[in-house]
Design a protein that fits this description.
The relative contact order is 0.09. This protein is 85% helix and 0% strand. The protein has one domain (11-170): Four Helix Bundle (Hemerythrin (Met), subunit A), CATH 1.20.120.520. The radius of gyration is 30 Å and the shape is rod-shaped. The longest helix is centred in the first third of the chain and has 44 residues, at 32-75. The chain contains five helices and no strands. Helix 2 crosses helix 5 (156-170) and helix 3 (80-114) packs antiparallel against helix 4. The termini are far apart.
Length: 178
Amino acid sequence: MPSHDTESNAPITHFANCHLGIFAQLSRLGDLPALLGPAAQARKMASESLVFFDKALYSHHSEEEKDLFPAVAQSAQAGVERLKVNALIEQLTHDHRALEKLWNSLEPGLRKVAKGQDSSLDVLALQALVQGYQAHAHLEEQVFLPLAQTILGRNSNHMAALGLSLHMRHVPQFAAYI
Protein backbone atom coordinates (compact mmCIF):
# COMPACT_ATOMS: atom_id res chain seq x y z
CA MET A 1 0.00 0.00 0.00
CA PRO A 2 1.53 3.40 -1.01
CA SER A 3 2.37 5.82 1.70
CA HIS A 4 0.13 8.79 2.33
CA ASP A 5 3.06 11.22 1.89
CA THR A 6 3.81 9.99 -1.64
CA GLU A 7 0.19 10.38 -2.73
CA SER A 8 -0.08 13.83 -1.25
CA ASN A 9 3.13 15.00 -2.98
CA ALA A 10 2.09 13.63 -6.40
CA PRO A 11 0.71 16.93 -7.74
CA ILE A 12 3.86 18.79 -6.70
CA THR A 13 6.07 16.10 -8.24
CA HIS A 14 4.01 16.39 -11.44
CA PHE A 15 4.70 20.13 -11.64
CA ALA A 16 8.40 19.61 -10.86
CA ASN A 17 8.65 17.01 -13.64
CA CYS A 18 6.97 19.42 -16.07
CA HIS A 19 9.62 21.98 -15.21
CA LEU A 20 12.32 19.51 -16.25
CA GLY A 21 10.82 19.43 -19.74
CA ILE A 22 10.44 23.21 -19.77
CA PHE A 23 14.06 23.70 -18.69
CA ALA A 24 15.25 21.32 -21.40
CA GLN A 25 13.23 23.16 -24.06
CA LEU A 26 14.42 26.55 -22.79
CA SER A 27 18.00 25.34 -23.02
CA ARG A 28 17.46 24.31 -26.66
CA LEU A 29 15.68 27.61 -27.36
CA GLY A 30 18.62 29.47 -25.87
CA ASP A 31 20.83 27.85 -28.52
CA LEU A 32 18.64 29.23 -31.34
CA PRO A 33 20.36 32.63 -31.72
CA ALA A 34 23.68 30.91 -32.35
CA LEU A 35 22.05 28.99 -35.22
CA LEU A 36 20.38 31.99 -36.85
CA GLY A 37 23.67 33.42 -38.13
CA PRO A 38 24.76 30.23 -39.92
CA ALA A 39 21.22 29.77 -41.29
CA ALA A 40 21.24 33.31 -42.71
CA GLN A 41 24.73 32.70 -44.09
CA ALA A 42 23.54 29.48 -45.76
CA ARG A 43 20.59 31.31 -47.37
CA LYS A 44 22.88 34.09 -48.61
CA MET A 45 25.51 31.66 -49.90
CA ALA A 46 22.91 29.61 -51.76
CA SER A 47 21.31 32.73 -53.23
CA GLU A 48 24.64 34.20 -54.37
CA SER A 49 25.67 30.87 -55.88
CA LEU A 50 22.41 30.65 -57.83
CA VAL A 51 22.88 34.14 -59.26
CA PHE A 52 26.53 33.55 -60.07
CA PHE A 53 26.14 30.17 -61.73
CA ASP A 54 22.96 31.12 -63.57
CA LYS A 55 24.84 34.01 -65.16
CA ALA A 56 28.35 32.63 -65.43
CA LEU A 57 28.39 28.86 -65.79
CA TYR A 58 26.69 28.40 -69.15
CA SER A 59 28.01 31.60 -70.75
CA HIS A 60 31.59 30.76 -69.70
CA HIS A 61 31.31 27.26 -71.13
CA SER A 62 29.69 28.61 -74.29
CA GLU A 63 32.45 31.17 -74.86
CA GLU A 64 35.13 28.54 -74.45
CA GLU A 65 33.39 26.11 -76.79
CA LYS A 66 32.37 28.66 -79.46
CA ASP A 67 35.39 30.95 -79.41
CA LEU A 68 38.45 29.69 -77.57
CA PHE A 69 38.45 25.97 -78.36
CA PRO A 70 37.90 26.34 -82.13
CA ALA A 71 40.48 29.13 -82.37
CA VAL A 72 43.11 27.02 -80.64
CA ALA A 73 42.21 23.87 -82.59
CA GLN A 74 42.38 25.69 -85.94
CA SER A 75 45.71 27.32 -85.10
CA ALA A 76 47.38 24.21 -83.66
CA GLN A 77 50.11 22.64 -85.73
CA ALA A 78 49.25 19.35 -87.39
CA GLY A 79 50.52 16.29 -85.60
CA VAL A 80 51.25 15.92 -81.90
CA GLU A 81 50.21 19.47 -80.98
CA ARG A 82 46.81 19.21 -82.67
CA LEU A 83 46.21 15.77 -81.18
CA LYS A 84 46.98 17.14 -77.72
CA VAL A 85 44.71 20.14 -78.26
CA ASN A 86 41.87 17.97 -79.53
CA ALA A 87 42.17 15.60 -76.58
CA LEU A 88 42.15 18.51 -74.12
CA ILE A 89 39.15 20.11 -75.83
CA GLU A 90 37.30 16.81 -75.73
CA GLN A 91 38.07 16.40 -72.00
CA LEU A 92 37.15 20.00 -71.14
CA THR A 93 33.90 19.84 -73.12
CA HIS A 94 33.03 16.57 -71.41
CA ASP A 95 33.74 18.25 -68.06
CA HIS A 96 31.40 21.11 -69.00
CA ARG A 97 28.48 18.75 -69.62
CA ALA A 98 29.16 16.78 -66.42
CA LEU A 99 29.44 19.94 -64.31
CA GLU A 100 26.28 21.40 -65.86
CA LYS A 101 24.45 18.17 -65.11
CA LEU A 102 25.60 18.30 -61.49
CA TRP A 103 24.59 21.96 -61.25
CA ASN A 104 21.14 21.17 -62.65
CA SER A 105 20.66 18.44 -60.05
CA LEU A 106 21.67 20.79 -57.22
CA GLU A 107 19.80 23.91 -58.32
CA PRO A 108 16.33 23.01 -56.94
CA GLY A 109 17.74 22.20 -53.50
CA LEU A 110 19.82 25.37 -53.49
CA ARG A 111 16.71 27.40 -54.36
CA LYS A 112 15.02 25.95 -51.29
CA VAL A 113 18.02 26.73 -49.11
CA ALA A 114 18.07 30.30 -50.46
CA LYS A 115 14.42 30.68 -49.41
CA GLY A 116 15.06 29.19 -45.97
CA GLN A 117 12.98 26.13 -46.76
CA ASP A 118 13.75 22.59 -45.71
CA SER A 119 15.88 20.95 -48.32
CA SER A 120 17.41 17.59 -48.84
CA LEU A 121 20.47 19.08 -50.52
CA ASP A 122 22.61 16.33 -52.00
CA VAL A 123 25.85 16.94 -50.11
CA LEU A 124 27.79 14.39 -52.16
CA ALA A 125 26.71 16.05 -55.42
CA LEU A 126 27.64 19.45 -54.01
CA GLN A 127 31.09 18.16 -53.06
CA ALA A 128 31.44 16.57 -56.48
CA LEU A 129 30.60 19.89 -58.15
CA VAL A 130 33.12 21.82 -56.06
CA GLN A 131 35.90 19.25 -56.50
CA GLY A 132 35.07 18.62 -60.15
CA TYR A 133 35.08 22.29 -61.03
CA GLN A 134 38.33 22.86 -59.17
CA ALA A 135 39.96 20.02 -61.11
CA HIS A 136 38.48 21.31 -64.37
CA ALA A 137 39.69 24.87 -63.77
CA HIS A 138 43.11 23.56 -62.75
CA LEU A 139 43.40 21.64 -66.06
CA GLU A 140 42.42 24.76 -67.99
CA GLU A 141 44.70 27.09 -66.03
CA GLN A 142 47.74 24.84 -65.85
CA VAL A 143 47.60 23.03 -69.19
CA PHE A 144 45.13 24.34 -71.76
CA LEU A 145 45.41 28.12 -71.38
CA PRO A 146 49.22 28.16 -71.46
CA LEU A 147 49.08 25.95 -74.57
CA ALA A 148 46.44 28.24 -76.08
CA GLN A 149 48.63 31.26 -75.36
CA THR A 150 51.55 29.59 -77.13
CA ILE A 151 49.50 28.50 -80.13
CA LEU A 152 47.52 31.71 -80.61
CA GLY A 153 50.56 33.84 -79.75
CA ARG A 154 52.34 32.62 -82.87
CA ASN A 155 49.99 34.70 -85.00
CA SER A 156 48.80 38.04 -83.63
CA ASN A 157 45.85 37.98 -86.04
CA HIS A 158 44.51 34.81 -84.38
CA MET A 159 44.75 36.36 -80.91
CA ALA A 160 43.13 39.57 -82.17
CA ALA A 161 40.30 37.62 -83.79
CA LEU A 162 39.62 35.79 -80.53
CA GLY A 163 39.67 39.09 -78.63
CA LEU A 164 37.26 40.68 -81.10
CA SER A 165 34.93 37.70 -80.94
CA LEU A 166 34.81 37.88 -77.13
CA HIS A 167 34.38 41.65 -77.21
CA MET A 168 31.47 41.45 -79.66
CA ARG A 169 29.78 38.85 -77.50
CA HIS A 170 29.87 41.22 -74.53
CA VAL A 171 28.90 44.45 -76.29
CA PRO A 172 25.19 45.31 -75.86
CA GLN A 173 23.26 44.57 -79.00
CA PHE A 174 21.41 47.55 -80.47
CA ALA A 175 18.51 47.17 -82.84
CA ALA A 176 19.00 48.70 -86.25
CA TYR A 177 16.56 51.48 -87.03
CA ILE A 178 15.20 51.93 -90.51
